[in-house]
What does this fold into?
Amino acid sequence: MEIVFLAAAQAELDETVLYYAKQREGLGDDFADEVERAIKRIIQFPQAWSLVSGKTHRCITNRFSYGVLYQVRGNTLFIVAIMHLHREPDSWESRLPIQER
It folds into this structure.
């Protein structure tokens, strides 16, 4: 399965890795690894995770309070957001046209 990050999702991942790296040595890498594990779970079971809208699912990371919001389109996994679960929960919606949400 091909994995495609929306630019905003990639920026969220990069910014969060940097944030955690400043908090404690190795913590940024731990966050990146946790997101990678979540993506691997998504690839294994793409329909298993909660729907947050008609086409968009959310897989929650195990160690951090973050969710990976994604859509499966054919053989492509679109990562829409890497977002903190307690901040602006609907902010990702503006990234997609209404018919794609």
